[in-house]
Amino acid sequence: METSIRKSGESLLPAVGKTPPHRNPLLAHKFGADPYALVYEDRVYLYMTSDTLEFDEAGQAKENSYGSIRRLTVISSADLANWTDHGEIAVAGEEGTAKWATQSWAPAIACKRIDGQDRFFLYFANNGSGVGVLRGDSPLGPWTDPVGGPLISAGTPGVEGVPWIFDPAVLVDDDGQGYLYFGGGIPEGQHEMPNSARVVRLGDDMVSLQGAAEVVPAPYMFEDAGIHKYGDVYYYTYCSNFHEGERPAGSPPPGEIACMTSASPMGPWTYQGSFLHNPGHYFGVSGNNHHAIFRFRDRWYIAYHAQTLSAAMDVAHGYRSTHLDLLELQEGELLPKTEATMQGVPQLGVHDPYRPTGGYTCAWSAGLRTEAEYDGGEGTVCAISPGGWSGIAGVDFGKVGPAGFFASIEMSGSSGVLEVRLDAPDGPAVCEVALQPEPGEGFRERSAELSSGAVTGVHDLFFVFCAEDPSASCALRSWRFRS
Predict the structure, then answer these.
(1) Rounded CA Rg of the chain
(2) Which of 322, 421, 456, 476 has the fewest CB atoms within 10 Å of its CB?
């Protein structure tokens, strides 16, 4: 089946920043910086600073000031190839849960079982002045503000001498004790040993402190606290500063992710070296470095950000995107090994097309944006512009194949067609769904029949929206195939 409404010579919108089969950056339709990972119920959730383009009076993209960022972006995946965009958490400002805060940057999250129930604690930086915390009953909330102000501030015992009170990282140890790491900046003349990183014990409730914060003596510390445990070893990781003077042998180079280890979450710490170069080394676009290390299905991964998407958009002005790569960590080796790539990580398993999938789940895209559902429901929907497309990696149709396709769609503007294609946005067509807008209709399930054996086995799957009216839009809430 190769029929299409697409006019002769009409081209698909090109992929920008992320081209199949590459897995990095994770998203092509929005930015997301300062990633932090939570593994829960066989899914990886990534929480990110919601970088958003800022414009000058002439309408040109300008340098990211970070001053208007009051939300955190959340995505998740079970296979590390197809990512679900859960939208944004309103954290700071009048619309946020923590109305006392003016910004929300660099999230960190932990889950702890309290009174027989899993509780989630989302820490965030209120610019560089302090660290706040939200509490929820699921990885996606809803969220409350249990403290009503900063958990960590300049007045917290042990925080004296910390220029930037931000960039939290959190660890819940095997015994249930929580620890919070934070800090950054360089006191005047102290580039080699800023002593601006801190660790503090959390109370049993995860929203209070036990005792004073203690110094983490990280050489050439700049920002970006990270913490993970492997075996009996605790790894504190961070971004080194950009001091241009001569450094002693063995010091971390500028803007790299460095590592310290300890037999205790509070130290003492031993410096081991650096293991991830600055993004400019890999991608030609330099900037600050921020990361998170986590274990998922017996393999170790590192999430980090780089300005790859913004560079592809020709707006590399501090707008960052999250990448994911494998990390080698073995017993007896105290320094991890990794490389930053555009290739990314292998897909874990295959995607089941016979179970409902949210329209906001994809591996690649062009001309796509995600929006809150119009009926106030949870999650987001995928809105595709004419010529735009969304791709799903590694879909297993089985040996028999499907007999039908169903999708919940809202059409706006003129009529159009949603094409379902294999292996590429311009690959073989499986079926088409005709779309006619009707006033007040909202989302409606639409379907198409497939001939027997039309598609079998494992393929990448693409949804392509075609319409003659450039202002038309196809909002896709969910889809599935019928066996």
Answers:
(1) 23
(2) 456
Q: What angle do CA 404, 410, 416 make, to 5 degrees?
A: 75
**297-306 mean pLDDT:** 98
CB neighbours of 45 closer than 8 A, spacing ≥ 6? 37, 38, 39, 74, 75, 76, 109, 139
For residue 81, give every residue at least 6 positions away whose Cβ sits within 8 Å of its Cβ, in sequence order, or none: 23, 345, 347, 348, 363, 393, 394
Q: What pLDDT shows up at residue 6? A: 47
pLDDT tens-digit map of 223-244: 999 999 999 999 999 999 999 9
- Mean pLDDT of all residues belonging to the chain: 95
Which amino acid belongs to residue 377?
Answer: G
Multiple choice CATH, 357-482, 2.60.120.260, 1.20.950.20, 1.10.1740.10, 3.30.465.10: 2.60.120.260
Q: How many CB atoms lie within 10 A of CB 86?
A: 22
Average pLDDT over residues 446-451: 93
Q: Sheet holding 221-230: strands in order across?
A: 221-230, 233-240, 257-262, 270-276
- 205-218 burial, b at 16+ Cβ within 10 Å, e below that, comes to ebbebeeebebbbb
Verdict on whether the full-model pTM lies above 0.70? yes
Judge whether 34 counts as a catalytic residue. Answer: yes
The domain ranges of the chain are 33-338, 357-482
What is the rounded distance in angstroms from the CA atom of residue 470 to the CA atom of residue 460? Answer: 27
Is pLDDT at 377 greater than 60 in this prediction?
no
Instruction: Point out the catalytic residue in the list 145, 167, 223, 224.
Output: 223
**Quick one: pLDDT at residue 10?**
54
**Closest among 38, 24, 60, 66 to 287, alpha carbons compared:** 66
Least confident of 31-45, 270-284, 303-317, 433-447: 433-447
**Peptide bond between residue 163 and the one before it cis (omega within 30 degrees of 0):** no
Listed in sequence order, the residues at least 6 apart from 245 whose beta carbon sits closer than 8 Å to its beta carbon are 191
Is the pLDDT assigned to residue 422 strictly greater than 50? yes
Asked whether the predicted pLDDT for residue 8 surpasses 60, the reply is no
Identify whether the C-beta of residue 211 lies closer than 8 Å to the C-beta of residue 198: no
Dihedral of CA atoms 252, 253, 257, 260 in degrees, nearest 10, equals 0
Q: Provide DSSP, 307-354.
A: SHHHHHTT--SS--EEEEEEEE--TT--S-EE---SS-----S-B-TT
* DSSP letters spanning 187-220: -TT-SS----EEEEEEPTTSSSEEEEEEEE--TT
Classify domain 33-338 by CATH number.
2.115.10.20
